[in-house]
Structures are given as structure tokens and as C-alpha cells.
Amino acid sequence: MASADWTSQLRALNPNVSNAKGSGNARYAPHKALLLLCLIDLVADGSLATATLTKTPELRLRFDSYWRIVDARWGGKPTLDLPFFYLSRQGFWRPLTADELLAVSPEGTSSIDLDPGFFATLHDASWRDLARKILIETWFPADEQAALFVALGFSDAKIRRLGYHLSTPSDSEARAKGRDARFRVIVVTQYRFTCALTGYGLHTRTGATLVEAAHIHPFSKSRNDSPENGLALSRDAHWMFDEGLWTASDTGRVQVAREVFTEWGPEAAWLKARHDTPLTYLDGVVLRPAAEHLAWHRANKFAG
User: How confident is the model at residue 175 (pLDDT cuts 50, 70, 90)?
Assistant: First the structure.
């Protein structure tokens, strides 16, 4: 199919409809449109080198993050399996089993093989912008539209250039959700799903990850969702950071409040042993926390 045909397919996703969820675009299940937005993200970021895609951590992180935007309306868990299979019916791809046979159910779908024409069209940056606009306008209500444009990194100027005008103010709750989703995706992917305190990372075969994005200067106080105000941390390290049990110097060395807590168990010195060690950055990771945010954390949260 030509790019115009793929554009038409974006308007023919045939999602589940529930009038109980609201009227207008609020009736539409968000799963298919969100997955396509995530796929466009992966191509734009250079994270999809071939036409075959599995349920990678990068895909799962984006889908789960964007799901938070629609969760208040649709509810339930962010079920990636369903659109991963059912979008094949619009011709975007073939669903494959682990043995690379044609899958016949969501449960049996291990990967997808994108249609060659669709894969080529995805590499056209102008078409990607148009596709995002169509998906967001067609399948989401106004507040979610505002959040999704922000989550995708669209500036107000770019939104106007595409011919769309947001109906919500710039400081709205909807846009805050979008900024939070973008913060989460950028921080965790830039740190390559690795905890900055421990250097530990973990993925499941369905793409779930142990690491999450932590604000250094809490958003509730700073209203700052810049990636430089973030660290990728495991859940334990995140809790300890928020409790002020550890912090970091401007040069990125860990400072532990060793006098204010007690550790026990098989790894009794798990946190205290990390005092004065450097934060962990894998090779190629360029994102760093800003010194001003670390200084705020040391002055206002650190218990040492």
C-alpha cells in the first residue's frame, strides 16, 4: 500500500467501543492507537532497525507510560497483548508465534512482522507527524489529546503548524500527565533501564522492568519534569532516595546517611557500602542529573 493507504488505515482501527466510558472519542478503547503511537516512537528514536518487533522493554515502557494518560477513563491494566495481535487485521503486520509461525491468538503472539510498505512509510518523518495527529485526534477525547501531544514532545508551535489547537491551558492537569509520561520514558530509556545507584537492571520476557524514573526535586514542589531532574532507580533505591537515606554530590558520588538507619539480613551493608562510590552510567549514557537539583536534594531531603 502507498502512504496514503496507510493513513486511511489509521482512521479504520475498529477499536472496541463502550458507551459507558463516555461520548464521542471517549467511547473508543485506546489500546490500538496507543500501540501505534509507541511504534512510531521507536522508529523515530532509531530503536527499530528491522521490521520484526518483540515485546521489548522500550515498547512496554512507552505503552505503560502512555496508558497512565488514559487510565482514568478506560481503567484496567495496560494490556499490550491484545493490540499486538489484533492490529494485524488492519494489515499493519503479521503476528508470529515463538516458532515464527502465524499466530492465531493474542496469547500465542510472540512477535510481529511489519508489512514492508508500512515499515518503509514509518521512516518518513513527515508521515509520522501526520500519523500521530490522526491517531490522537481520531481516537482520544480532548484532555487526553493534550496530554499525548505533550508526552510525544510536540511544542505548541509544532501543534499549530500541524493545524491542531489544544483546548486545554498549558498548565492543565492533562498536560501534567503528558509531561510525566515523557519524563518517565526519557529517563528510563536514556539510562538504559539500569539503576544509577546499583548498576542493576532486570527485564521480564514480557518487557516489564525493575527500574523506574525518580524525580530528584519532587515534581509536587518543583513542577519540573526535565530529564535532568531525574534518576533511573530500582524501586528500593528510589524509596531510599525519597526518604533521604542517600543522595549524590555535584560530581555524582553517592553520599549515604549512615547514622540514621540500620540494615540487616544477608546483604546487611547493601546501602552503607555504597557511600562515596560513583553513580552508575553505562557506556554511551550521556544524560546526567543537573547539579542544581542534586544540591536541592542534599539541602532539603538528605538525612545525613
Answer: confident
**47 and 114 inside one domain:** yes
With CA atoms as reference, report the closest residue to 206 among 77, 295, 17. 77
In a domain, 185, yes or no: no
| Residue 184 within a domain | no
Q: Could you tell me the three cell numbers for 233? A: 532507580
Secondary structure class of 84 (helix, strand, coil): helix
Residue 115 in any domain: the answer is yes
pLDDT of residue 160: 76
Q: Would you say residue 188 lies in a domain?
A: no
Residues β-bridged to residue 55: none
Q: How far is CA 136 from the centre of its chain?
A: 17
Name residues whose C-beta falls within 8 Å of residue 19's C-beta, 6 or more positions apart in sequence: 27
**Single pTM value for the model:** 0.91
Domain extent, residue 145, equals 3-178
User: How far is Cα 274 from Cα 297, in angstroms, rounded to an integer?
Assistant: 18
